[in-house]
Amino acid sequence: MDKNTFTGLFLIMAIIAGSIYFLKPSDAELKKERLVQRQDSLRKAGLAKVNTAATAKFDTSKAAKSTVADSATLKSPFGAASVGSEKFITLENKDLLIKLSTRGGKVASVELKNFKTYSKKPLVLFDGAQNHFGLNFNTGDKNIKTDDYYFTSSVPELKVAENDSASVTLRLTYSPTQYIDYVYSLKGTGYKLGLIIKPTGLDGVINNSSSVNINWAASLHKQEKDMKQERQYSTVYYYNTEDHVDYLSVSKDDQKDISDKKMSWVAFKQHFFSNVLIAKNPISKSNLSVSTDVADSADVKQMKADLTIARGTDGSVPLEFYFGPNRYSTLKDQGNDLQKLVDLGWGPLKYINQFAVLPVFNFLKQFNWNYGLIILALTVVLKLVLSPLTYKSYLSMAKMRVLKPEMDEIKTKVGEDNPTLLQQEYLKLYKKAGVNPLGGCLPLVIQMPIVIAFFRFFPSLFELRGESFLWMHDLSTYDAVLTFPTIPFIGDHISLMCLLMTISTLIYTYFNNQISGATGQMKYIGYITPIIFLATLNSYPSGLNYYYFLANMLTFLQQYLIKFMVDDKKIHAQIQENKKKPDDPKKKKSGFGARMEEMMRQQQVQPKKK
Hints:
- This protein has helices spanning 3-22, 27-33, 71-75, 227-232, 328-333, 348-365, 371-414, 419-433, 442-457, 496-516, 520-525, 528-537, 542-563, 568-580, 591-609, and strands at residues 55-59, 88-92, 96-101, 107-116, 122-126, 132-139, 142-145, 152-153, 159-160, 165-175, 178-187, 192-200, 211-221, 235-240, 245-247, 254-258, 263-269, 273-291, 299-310, 317-325, 480-487, 491-495.
- The strands form 3 sheets. Strands 6, 7, 8, 10, 11, 12, 13, 14, 15, 16, 17, 18, 19 and 20 form a 14-stranded antiparallel sheet that branches. It has a 6-stranded antiparallel sheet with strand order 5-4-3-2-1-9, with no helix packed on it. A two-stranded antiparallel sheet has the order 21-22.
- The protein has 15 helices and 22 strands.
- It folds into 2 domains: 35-342, Beta-galactosidase, Chain A, domain 5 (Distorted Sandwich), CATH 2.70.98.90; 343-466 and 550-582, no CATH class.
C-alpha cells in the first residue's frame, strides 16, 4: 500500500471518528434525558374490564373546568358550543383503551393494553394538552377550529354493542338541524379506530364545502430505554397514491408542504409504535412538521399534520386511525401498505431484508424458540449460503500468500522508485500464475450489502423488543455492563455484547492477516475499524451486536475447516505449472487486466510527453 492510499484511508477514518464526536449530544442533553419520566397525566380509573367486546362509557373522574362565554360569543357561529365542561368517554377492546374528549370531540389518549414501556408502565402513546385533532374552516368572516368547541355525546352510560363492537357519536351543534357528527367505531379486537365526519345542513354555513381541512398534532411519549435511539427512528411518514412512502428528517426539525401528489395516509411514527391517519378519500394538500424539545425527557418528538381531504358524494369524510406496534406482519395485515413504515434500508438493502432475511426470520419464528436462538439459526443459514464465497476468498488469499516470495523478489529487483513498472511486473506474474489479485476482495464486497442490510434489519425488528437472552434483558437496546460519566466517542456505558463483538473482530483481523500474509501498513490498518465499531455500535441493540459476534465466530469455524481443504504446497505447484504454459494469444484478457494495463501504459506515456 502506497502513502497516498494509506493517507486516504486514515482521513476517512478520521472523518468518521470526528462525526461521531461532534454529533454526540452534550452533557446537558444527556442529563435531561436521564430525568425521571413524567407520570402519565391521564390514567384509567375504575374501568370495567372486558375480554373481547368493545365498550363505551363516560368517564367523569377527570373533567376540565367549565368555560364561560359572554353574550356576543354565544350569538356567534357555534357560539353555544364554545361553553361547557370537558368529559371523557372510554372506548375499549381487547387491544386498545381509547379516551375521547367532548372538548374538540377528539381522541384524548390511547393506551396499548398488551404492551408496557421499558420501565414496565402502561404504554400510553399520547395524552395531554399538546394533542389536537379537529376541523378548521371559515363561516362568514370567522375562523372555526372545532378542537376548541364542546361536543355532546350519544353515550349516556356504559354500553356494550352487538357483534363485539361499539360506536360513539360526538356532535358539534350549530342549530337543531345543522351540526357536525364525529362517529367513532371500535371492533372487539384490533388496533384500528374508525371515524366518519358527517357535516349536516352546513353547505351554506361553511364557505368551502367540497373538502375539509383537518389539523392533527401529537406529542409522543417516551416508551423505550434510550431516548436518543428512539428519537433516531421517530418522524412523520406519508404515503401517496402512487405507492411511494417518504418521511421527514429523523435527525433535525423538519417541515414540508405537499400539494403536487395526493396522499392516502400520514403517520406519526415512533421507533416501535405508530399513530396513522388513513383517509378513504385522497388527501390533496398537506403541511407536515416534526420538532424535538431536547429539554423534554418525557416526550420523544412533537408532530403535526394539516391536511385537506376531499368529501364523499354524501358529504362525509371516512377515516381510520391505526394505533399499534410497528410489527411488519401486523402492519401488513392492516392493508394500505402500512408495512412500509418499517425501515428495512434503502436501495438493494431493502429488497435483501424484505425478500430474503425477513422470510427466513419468520420461518424460524414458527418454532417458538427464544429469539437469541433464532438469531443464531439465522446466522448459521446465512453463513451456509455464503460459504462458497468464503471458500473462494480464502483460496484467493492463499494464492497471494504463496506468491508473496516471488513478489518480494520483483520488488527488490525493480525497486520502489518506479511504482508503475513495479505494478506492471506484478501483473505479468499474476497473469502467468493464473491469479486474480482481487479474488480475495470481491467475495467480501459481494457479502458487504448483506452485512449492512442486517445493520438496518435488527434495529427495526419489533419482535426483539423486551425479549431477553442470557444476560441481555432486552435485545432491542444496548446491554450496559458498566456505566460511568460520559466519555467522548463511547458515551456513558459499555455494552458487553458490543465489547465481545469488538474483541472477536480484532481476533478475526489477526488471523485474517495470517492467512493473507499482510505486512506493513496494511497489517495494522484492519485493527482500526473494530475500534470505530466499538464507538459506533455501543448504543445499538444488543441483538445486532450479538449477530455480528456470531458471524465472527462462525467465520472462525469456516476458516478452520477450509484450512484442511487448502494445501499451500499444491497451490504453489499449480501456480508453477501455470507459469510454464505458453501465453495463448487468442485468450481474451479480463476487463480488469485490460484496464490496468491501459492505465499503466498511459502513466508511462505522460512523463515522456512532458
